[in-house]
Each structure stands twice: as C-alpha cells, then as structure tokens.
Specification:
- It is a single chain.
- The protein is an all-beta fold.
- The protein has no helices and 11 strands.
- The chain has strands at residues 2-7, 10-13, 18-26, 33-39, 45-52, 58-60, 68-73, 78-83, 92-99, 113-114, 118-123.
- The strands form 2 sheets. Strands 2, 4, 5, 6, 9, 10 and 11 form a 7-stranded mixed β-sheet that branches. The protein has a 4-stranded antiparallel β-sheet with strand order 1-3-8-7, with no helix packed on it.
- A hairpin with a 5-residue loop joins strand 4 and strand 5 (45-52).
- It is globular and about 40 Å long.
- The protein starts with a strand and ends with a strand.
Length: 124
C-alpha cells in the first residue's frame, strides 16, 4: 500500500547537520503518520520523531527534541528529518515508517510499512 525510500545519510563530523528524506509512494492521506526511527549496532529500534502529513500533529523523543526537526513537502510526498548538533551517539541506521492514525506513534510494532534504512555516521 505504502512504499518508503530513505536517503540523505552519510558521514558527518560531530556538531554538524544532516537532512534525511523519506519519499513515499502509494496511498497517503492526512490521517497517516510517518515516523523516524534509528537502530544502532546491538540495540533496538528507537523512536525519534513522527508527523502526520498535514503537519498538525508532531511527536519527538526527548533525546532529539530541540536538535531534530520533522517536516514535509506534501507536493513531493516526502517527509524530512533535519538533524542538527549531531553527536557520535547518533550513529545508527535511520528508518522511516508509516502507519494509520490509530497507531501508537512511539511503538515500532504499530508501523506496517518501512523503508530500507540509511546509514548515518557521526565522527568525533
């Protein structure tokens, strides 16, 4: 139903910035939610941020609030994650995911659609 492709990952120095993109295709509507997650080696998949396509509802994990900003370009069906003040502990594979409005936005298990992930590496 929904296909997602992440891009924009790469290598960045600590303190730098990176913008990730999540391009969606298939059925999207205002009630749908797009979330950003990350998974570091040996760790579980961690919630970062989420937004409806309308932008009316946004959610952030405490660990990234104030540093990361979720936004979208509805004309391009693309959700962005702007990451500023990056730290080495932000190094992970970053994923976008989509679910319906009934999902628990913080719970990765409620998201049926996932992108393939993009690697972000923050060096000291």
């Amino acid at each position: 139903q929904v296909q997602l492709v992440e891009s924009g990952g790469g290598l960045v120095q600590a303190g730098g910035s990176l913008r990730l993109s999540c391009a969606a295709s298939g059925r999207t509507f205002s009630g749908n939610v797009v979330g950003w997650f990350r998974q570091a080696p040996g760790k579980g998949r961690e919630f970062l941020a989420a937004s409806t396509w309308s932008g009316g509802s946004t959610y952030y994990a405490d660990s990234v609030k104030g540093r990361f900003t979720i936004s979208r370009d509805n004309a391009k069906n693309t959700m962005y994650l702007q990451m500023n003040s990056l730290k080495p502990e932000d190094t992970a594979v970053y994923y976008c995911a989509a679910c319906g409005s009934s999902c628990r936005v913080y719970d990765r298990h409620d998201y049926p659609y996932w992108g393939q992930g993009t690697q972000v590496t923050v060096s000291s």
